[in-house]
Amino acid sequence: MPKAGACCNATERSLWLNGGSANWADFTCLCMQKSGITTTVCQLSPGRLVGSSLQINLRQNGIEPMSGNVAIIGGTGFESLPPEIFAEEVIVDTQYGIARALSISNNYVEPAKLYFVSRHGASHGLAPHQINYRANTDLLLALGVKYVFATNAVGSLTLEHHPGKLVLFDDFIDMTRSRDRTYFSDSNWKHIDFTTPYSPILRSAVLQAATESMVEVAPRGTYLCVDGPRFETPAEVRLFGAWGADVVGMTGIPEVVMAKEVGIEYAALGIVTNPGAGLTTEVVSHDQVTDVMASSITIVRELLLRACGHLVL
User: Fold this and answer.
1) 51, 127, 293 from 130: Cα distances, Å
2) What domains does the chain contain, in order, with CATH numbers?
């Protein structure tokens, strides 16, 4: 095991200090290597590296936090990156628990940093209701992320959206009931306008990348989120469709809500994996979902990487 801070260069130290000039001695970083991936674990010493609290402390010291980094959050079927993309794992101990990201070296957005977050974990071990959305939000804050592109495997509420179709969300309906639905957990809260739930800047970047790549993307769609992990009933599919929703999923809320609450630009691309229950005679299965994602993931990944390159930071 290398000594603390041994694999953290000046750039990485600047990252962990959010672009400031605080004392690096206040941080403890341990670096490990496994299966060719370097892992950097950083904590504020003593105690824990907390994204939002750290940024507030830096502002009090007259230091502006780093901003402008980009992250891709991968959902079902997009839990990892191919081996040809070199990535370094970063683990942050947030106030809400441990959160992980991969720092992508060939990142399309230099001089900014590009990160990848696997929403369900690298082995898809977390069910939708088990995801620690607050910890993931704190992770993004700690890494200075300003822009997030996310993917969601979704079921269709209309036969217009067939399996394999890509839908860029422009609105949502929240039908979740059993999870934290806001980032705010104490008296420091405020009302947030959701007239435009998804970032126009990032949506434009995705659509521009789709045009260049000749990939068909539905330019708008209303996403309805349920708790899961069960699939919807035929009656629910009919009801949700009558409400004006186009697709249904289990993870987009509260992710988009928390991002907007902390000032992160956020866009989400839905990959239709199956028709909703009752729309056809097919039985909805997770195998069907993973099969469609497996056939779509290369196109989706390249599309979002190209979209990242269109951001002017």
Assistant:
1) 21, 5, 21
2) 67-309 (3.40.50.1580)
